[in-house]
Request: fold
Amino acid sequence: QVQLVESGGGLVQPGGSLRLSCAASGSGFTFSIYRMGWYRQAPGEQRELVALISTSGITTYADSVKGRFTISRDSAKNTVYLQMNSLKVEDTAVYSCYAHRIRDPLGDYWGQGTQVTVSS
Reply:
């Protein structure tokens, strides 16, 4: 099993910044073979992709966050980050960490989520 623990959420004013972290662990866990990502879900909305980072560091972003958010991974710490700048009210959501073991259709794991609220 894989455990994903997020941190770094909170309340921030519009235009502000936050950095989310997701620490991954588990028996026999090998960080390098997991694609990592962040999803978010706002109240009354469906969960949506925010950003993904491949095992080789290739990144993908939702159009709504391009140029404002940056995803990165630190293999030494088994951790994936989401740096969020120029936050908008519409970025308010629960942000969840995601891990996918490559070449394993059953290898999807989710964190519990962390609340990000952007409000003045």
